[in-house]
Amino acid sequence: TILIEQHGAVRLLRLNRPEALNAFTTGMLGQLRQALEAAATDVDTRCVLITGAGRAFSAGQDLADPHVAPSREAGAPPKDIGHLLDHFYIPLALRLRSMPVPVVAAVNGVAAGAGASVALGCDLVLAGESASFIQAFSKIGLIPDCGGTWLLPRLVGRAKALELALLGDKLKAADAERLGLISRVLPDAELMEAALATAQKLAAMPTRALVETRIAMDEALKFDFETALKREAVLQSQMGFAYDYLEGAVAFLDKRKPQFRDR
Ligand code: LHQ
Predict the structure, then answer these.
(1) Catalytic site residue 145?
(2) Residues 146, 224 within the same domain
(3) 74 and 179 inside one domain
(4) Nearest ligand 1 atom to alpha carbon 140
(5) pLDDT for 220-250, tens place per residue?
(6) Per-residue confidence at 81, pLDDT binned at 50, 70, 90?
(7) Which of 163, 181, 203 is the last residue of a domain?
(8) pLDDT band at 77 (very low <50, low <70, confident <90, very high)
(9) Per annotation, catalytic residue among 42, 67, 87, 262
(10) Measured distance CA(4)–CA(178) in Å, rounded
(11) What DSSP string runs through 34-45?
């Protein structure tokens, strides 16, 4: 259910259950996590690109999955869907958010529920103009998960986050870009080429500095200004001792293209 392709230093992961709009089964969630783990440990992979097969990115949790679908029989005990979060979505979201390389999402169609959370958990989110984002949770009596409650207010602020999460309406890619929910919208026909080019560009950049930037920004959200300044100094000191800074600065002074290698 996850197709894996290598394009130079870019590892492309394609969610692949198009007949169900790439809705996540437990098997698929496990495979996606494994695929991320494999990309994280492959030293030749310097960027991960995630997209969906067919007309959707992902419709979120597969609601027909026996772990999730409420039993229709009278008196049947309710299922603990929290279990699914503990064992599948939390490890997946943590793995995604702590990748040692940048992660780009190419949102090729609808991203609903946990499918939207996975897309929005990536470092850069590109979308085709026919793509859309749906906080589908409220429509079925649930709350945003897989990081949705954390990501949404940080990306678009409390007012818009609550509007999206409470109403659960379909948000078109262009509106998602306007709100600052995603990075960029592209014509559908250009999405994959542009996403691969962006991923290749990131892959040629100083990976460690890119990842530390993500970490520092996430941390800074918890800090006051002075604490953030001091944390920047600690991290920058570490970056200054790394090979990539030496290479980047010397290449600039020598007017040549740098060859970064830290990861
Ligand atoms: C699906 C699904 C789907 C199964 C389309 N499941 N089959 C939840 C529970 C527990 C713990 C953990 O966390 C979560 C997190 C969540 O993700 S909750 C949110 C779950 N997702 C949704 O509620 C979205 C449900 N899907 C839709 O609203 C629509 O399918 C969208 C708006 C995504 C697309 O609409 P259409 O383009 O009109 O396509 P469609 O509805 O006709 O779907 C095509 C097929 O895909 C269809 O199957 P069929 O056999 O009739 O062709 C759907 O049943 C199937 N499908 N989403 N989540």
Answers:
(1) yes
(2) no
(3) yes
(4) 23
(5) 999 999 999 999 999 999 999 999 999 999 9
(6) very high
(7) 203
(8) confident
(9) 87
(10) 32
(11) HHHHHHHH-TT-
